Amino acid sequence: MTPDELRRQLEFYKDLGIQQLYRREPRPVEVAAPLAPVAPLVPVEALPAPPHVEVRPITEPMMDITLPGLAPENDTLERICSDIGDCTRCKLHRGRNKIVFGVGNPATKLVFVGEGPGADEDAQGIPFVGRAGQLLTQMIEGTSAKEGIPLKRADVYICNVVKCRPPENRTPEPDEMEICGQFLFRQLSVLQPKAICALGSTAAKAILGGKDGVTKLRGKWHKWRDIPVIVTYHPSYLLRPYNQDAKREAWEDLKKVLHFVYD
Ligand code: URA
Ligand code: SF4
User: Fold this and answer.
1) Which of 42-51, 144-153, 169-178, 238-247 has the lowest mean pLDDT?
2) Is 261 close to ligand 2, i.e. is its CB under 6 Å away?
3) Nearest residue CA, atom 2 of ligand 2?
């Protein structure tokens, strides 16, 4: 890679909001052994050779980073899907059965972004098909019906921050979110929806950057590039019986985004 190409690629990452680059494996840090004390008046030739200390050029670690590919001009969902291929870019590939790319209407005005596939999604390769997914479908279709908006799940687009199921459904780690996030950003760039609904803190952090969770972010508009973003509770959170206030709030968030997009 020429320095010019490298600079262009780094600028591209900055545009994507990528703050840090991760190396595949941490390198061992080499520390020079302390010099043995030397008796005085020994001729230089008789001294032991100094320990070898390797000096690496500063630019060298750039070369084995997991570099996201450049978003091609005239990008398409098909192109993103084929670039993902049989992806092994992050450690989540180890436990997955199917990559869960996304479903819905590619001409949609509204995109929902979740966290990552669960067991049902991993088995079927389709996002939000398990219990949380059924609730999401009900929320989309039920709320729009009540509000007089004729909208079905198939009319929107649904995807996740990471495309492979995290082991034991754990939260995706920052490196995984950043590596797989490039595909989410390409999806959003291609779809160019009128609004994005981030489901839960992981989606909110991936899309908006920063560390704030749902309670801090919900109830107001945010932006990803120029696209308005609403943050609300993840449907899995709403499935817990003690989160009744959150249900009412999620319903308000959904009404807000549906009216904004479809009025
Ligand atoms: N939870 C998510 O965040 N995404 C899915 O696809 C399913 C459950
Ligand atoms: Fe690749 Fe994303 Fe799966 Fe990681 S989670 S292996 S980056 S598709």
Assistant:
1) 42-51
2) no
3) 180
pLDDT at site 60: 46
Contact between residue 33 and residue 51 where contact means Cβ atoms under 8 Å apart = yes
**Is residue 122 lining ligand 1, measured as CB closer than 6 Å?**
no
* pLDDT score of 232: 98
d(CA 213, CA 216): 6
Atom of ligand 1 lying closest to residue 200 CA: 3
pTM: predicted TM-score of the whole model, two decimal places: 0.79
Task: Calculate the CA dihedral of residues 227, 199, 106, 108 and round it to 10 degrees.
Answer: -60
State whether the beta carbon of 99 lies less than 6 angstroms from ligand 2: yes
183 touches 189 (CB < 8 A): no
The Å distance, Cα 111 to ligand 2 centre, comes to 20
- Tell me the per-residue pLDDT of 42-66, one tens digit each, with 9 for 90 and over: 666 676 776 676 665 555 444 444 5
Kindly list the structural domains of the chain, giving each domain's residue range(s) and its CATH number in brackets, ordered by start: 98-262 (3.40.470.10)
